[in-house]
Amino acid sequence: MQRFAGLKILAWMLALAPVVASAQVITGTLLGTVTDPSGAPVKNAKVRIVNTGTNVVTQTTANDAGEYVQPYLPTGTYELTIEAAGFKKFRSTGIVLTLDAKVRVDAALVLGAVQETVEVRADALALQTDSTDLNSTVSSNIIASVPNIGRSPTYYMATIPGVVPRGSFEGTSNFATGDGARAQFSNFTVNGSRPISTEVLLDGAPNTGAAFNEIITVPNLDAIGDMKVITNAYSAEYGRASGGVISFGTKSGTNEYHGAVYDYWRNSALNANDFGRNSFGRNALGEAVREKGVFNIHQFGANLAGPVRLPKYDGKNKTFFFFAYEGNRRVEDASAFLTVPTQRERNGDFSQTFAQFRNPATGQIELTPRLIFNPTPGGATVTEVAQGQFRINRAPFVGNVIPTSMVNPTGRVLVNSYPLPNIAPLNVDGTGNYFDSNVIRTQTDQFIFKLDQQFNERNRTFFRWTTDWTLNTPPDRFRGEGGNRAATQQSLTRQFIPTLTVGHTWTKSATSLFEFRMNINRLSLINEPPQGVNTDLSALGFAPDMIRVLQNNPFPFVVPGGGFPEIGFRFFQLQRNFSTNSAFVVNYTKIRGKWTHKAGGEYRPMLNNFNQPRVPGMIFRADENWTRECTGPGCPALPPN
Description:
mainly beta, 5-stranded mixed β-sheet, 37 strands
């Protein structure tokens, strides 16, 4: 299916209070009131704001009411200086500005010479009074210090009041592979909303898919600067979300070079054996007969940030970069106990096939033969019980053995696609006679590059490029044992997600500001089984007329029932998802006296190019109704083979 949806979101907001609505939680705002010792406003006071990390300066002026507002400030630590004739200089340091934060710093000026300074330290626990939304912020300090075994920033959602994780959201080995896996990272409810209904932003740009609203890119933990979650009463610009709003902000460079190299390692040597393998017991030396399954996870990476310096260019105070790489290599046990046909059963001999049940009188487990009844007309008797009324009575095969003449050659080949039992049955009825030692392999590589450019005090731009590549190899059951040519029913997944985000802020004047932002997400997802197509169906006994109508000659899909695993190629095993989501945003902020007005528009074209072709094939599904005991006129009968 290929669908093109143009989603236009136009969010116009006029704020009727002296507060500022920031631009989709990518920046923050400093605001406050300047007064003299009597509490009267000091108009035209000069306000100077310095980012202490980049030394970038932003200047504005207090209005006639003594109020100043400076929106669209990048996250970071700031120093605020306010000067007015006849008053000592006011300086506030250590002001931490996080995503969408509205930090109020009021200045009560003291009479004196401007050469003198009154210095205060910002209050980190200041009460939020300039925003109506209900939100929680996860700072970079929390991200760096709170343990996170899966190293996914979405796990911090579980610490937010009103957020309830669902499904396998908190699975410690969950990697963003495929549509379903990525949806699990978004599988939580916010204040009772529907699951996977939350808006997810990365650097202020949409980061969700068109199909399920699932998260597209899960940024690595060391690349996250701040994270904010809005759970209620958010502004009109977030009207697309019926749940909450999550915003991730990637780190930016500063005037100092910073970097890190890391490797998080989890290994099976540190784990105990599982119950299934312990059930095999120990040998004479006390060693486990079945060794522990493999469990190796390496999450490694590096990051570097600082000013851009080239042979003829020094980017100090104006050009900064941030680069991060993280790789994941996972090999995890996916072993299983299965039931496969015995040699007797492959030959049609079910004399040693039993079913177990618990005797209600004794409470003990007992066995009863699994009788196979002849479904052909020759294996049934017809009795006239009344005039015009007949009853069909099936008879079991003699000795519970199907005659060789009645065994279909193609059916025998399909049954022999299963390997023979390799362990003593776990259960008294003979089930659980095969142990498949297997693993899941996952490889991911993520690159993030961000560039920040301060052209002058009025113009600032950022550019971010992200690539996310994943290869998932599922368990390959029966890896070719017994000449098996069947597909495993699990698909190899290849996923590549490039993302481009560009933003520009233009301060036209102290009271007029524009913000422009563009974002493109491209999802390339391919699911295909490692085997099962281009099978020599003639070798299985199928006639040329049957093969001629098939494409790719898929191995037949076999559903034997009776507790035996399925094999073969499902009709919808192949999957292609090449979807592109874009967003174009314009915001305008105008400050008039005590009032701040904001208007903005957003256009989101979404191309959902999802293709899951139906591969024509054959299906063999066992129906026990044909071979179980049956009496009466409703019994179906097959013609002789």
